[in-house]
């Protein structure tokens, strides 16, 4: 059976990463972590040098580059065919990262840049896959009582607008991936509404990426600490997979791989 999902393994190379406590901020440790995720079934390694968690400190372009570029170069050398994602919102970082070997842009700012279209231009110039994520507000204030009239419609309208902006620069539509941005300016109820509507998002005609791994929604829902959120994360992954989600951004690659592979085989058996 042909696999119909991809697993994106999270590789944070920040000193303040929320779920690994900065344990992997050294090059060697980062590479070990990446190799483990690849062996466990990761199709994409998502490398980030600036934390996007609520309240995280901003870092300069030079600092971000110094964190991510050595990892990207080493990983590209070891794995010529691997999909390497650069998790950044800065056009300059995207450009240098792609020259170093990245071939996927994961932007929680949906290529909005600093009010310019530099990030879109970089993505179009290099013709790489891009994940356009919805968020409301800035990391420093996004969880301060976010409100929507209709969160699902707001996110759909935002995607329409960002896709239009990308296409107007000549981006290949096959490069675009959409992500509702779970936890980015959303309450627990907003997150649940969006996850329930994964199939609605998929109807826009683009692959859908879901990132819930170890997120605070499981603290709100289950009263669990970060290291106790795997069962909740797996339940959401399976729920979204069954609605057609394509890419799963996770910390726990092997567990996610096993759940989704099992679901995939069950569906195949049901359809026979
Ligand atoms: C960087 N990052 C943290 N959470 C994320 C999510 O849910 N989606 C994407 N695309 N990136 C994320």
Can you walk through the features of this model?
By secondary structure, the chain is of the alpha/beta class. The protein has a single domain, classed as Alpha-Beta Barrel (TIM Barrel). The chain contains 10 helices and 8 strands. The chain has helices at 27-39, 61-78, 91-100, 118-126, 151-168, 188-196, 198-202, 217-222, 230-242, 253-271; strands at 6-12, 44-48, 83-87, 104-107, 129-133, 176-179, 209-210, 247-250. Strands 6-5-4-3-2-1-8-7 form an 8-stranded parallel beta sheet. β2 (44-48), α2 and β3 form a beta-alpha-beta unit. The longest helix has 19 residues, at 253-271. The model has no long low-confidence stretch (mean pLDDT 93). The site of 9-methylguanine has 13 residues, from β5.
Topology (elements, then pairings):
Layout: E1 6-12, H1 27-39, E2 44-48, H2 61-78, E3 83-87, H3 91-100, E4 104-107, H4 118-126, E5 129-133, H5 151-168, E6 176-179, H6 188-196, H7 198-202, E7 209-210, H8 217-222, H9 230-242, E8 247-250, H10 253-271
Parallel strand pairs: 1-2, 1-8, 2-3, 3-4, 4-5, 5-6, 7-8
Bound molecules: 9-methylguanine.
Summarize the structure.
The protein has helices at residues 27-39, 61-78, 91-100, 118-126, 151-168, 188-196, 198-202, 217-222, 230-242, 253-271; strands spanning 6-12, 44-48, 83-87, 104-107, 129-133, 176-179, 209-210, 247-250. It is of the alpha/beta class. It binds 9-methylguanine.
List keywords for this structure.
alpha/beta; eight-stranded parallel beta sheet; 272 residues; 10 helices; globular; binds 9-methylguanine; TIM Barrel
